Amino acid sequence: MMNSLAHAPSWPLGLVAALWLALLVDRWLGEPPVRWHPVVWMGQYLGWVGQRLAPQRSQPGAADYRRFWLGALAWWVGAALVLIVSLALQWLVLAWHPVAGALLLGLLLKPLLAWRMLRDEVQAVEAALQTSLESGRAQLARLVSRDVSALDEHQVRESAIESLAENLNDSVVAPLFWFVLLGLPGAALYRYANTADAMWGYRGLRSGRDWTWAGKWAARADDVLSWLPARLTALLLALVRGGLPWRALWAQAPRTPSPNSGWPMAAMALALDVRLGKPGVYVLHEAGRVPQTADTARAVRLGERAVLLWAVLLAAALFFVGENRA
After folding, report:
1. pLDDT, tens only, 249-279
2. How far is C-alpha 267 from the chain's CA centre?
């Protein structure tokens, strides 16, 4: 089914139309209602399974392979459902009519992207900080999973800018990367893997449950699927900034516990020439300035330009493929 669509002459051009429509709808309308949001459905499945999967007490030093394989099985069951549904929807809309199908494909792709929501949430943190530190912390808590209760004003701003950089990859660059390679199933699988990592991929206790072994597969799956897109996100930020010190980027990016998130975050720190970090865990670009109010707006502008550049580059690549197949 997928092969027949992939070899159709109109397939690359259909992807271009769907990609740009998804980004335009995201910019104009933002997120669909919660009850119709596929990422919310993914989260509901993961939350329901997680309550039955992860133990409520941690067992330090004990290798719980049973939990690991149960977590892997539960992850694959959800992944299979996501792939089957997304592949069926893609086949149905493209088999109906080439032009209308491409437009419908774009509408199906949109909920798997979330640039406008990310941008608005980061800007809301900065706006809340102008009211009070407590308001800024409360707004940041909507965006990140870390404890925000002890963060000062600059640390709240750092966390918001870091989240913008990291989720630029998770919410835009990576889903579109996998969409161009594998169509709607690729984007849907990535968002499922990323959501699973956000909910299960923890070492130790979270929300009263121990995810050390139950969430290990989910964390590694997201690491694999995000590896190349995260580095491409850093490259995009470098391009829209007009260049970055590459040696510094290579030195800074591995400082985070995640093998991937350090790349876009370090690139953003260097692009803005600010210090970013998580207290007691890592610091990126220590020689940089403490981020100020204007740096949040600068980070958003860099993100906007990176999204636009990524869309242009992907469209150009698809046009090139289409011309060679014609």
Report:
1. 999 999 999 999 999 999 999 999 999 999 8
2. 16
- Select from 177, 159, 128 the least CA-distant residue to 269: 159
Residues 298-321: pLDDT tens digits? 999 999 999 999 999 999 999 887
- Token pair recorded at residue 178: 């996998």
Q: What is the 3-state secondary structure (H, E, C) of 162-222?
A: HHHHHHHHHHHHHHHHHHHHHCHHHHHHHHHHHHHHHHHCCCCEECCEECCCCCHHHHHHH
Instruction: Name, in order, each residue with C-beta under 8 angstroms of 143's C-beta and a sequence gap of 6 or more.
Output: 121, 122, 125, 159, 160, 163
Longest dimension (CA), the chain: 59
Q: How far is CA 214 from CA 46, 69, 72, 204, 206, in A?
A: 12, 8, 8, 10, 12
Rounded to whole angstroms, how far apart are CA atoms 317 and 321? 6
Those residues with Cβ within 8 angstroms of residue 253's Cβ, 6 or more apart along the chain or in another chain: 234, 262, 263, 265, 266, 267
Q: Do residues 25 and 19 lie in contact, with contact meaning Cβ atoms separated by under 8 Å? A: no
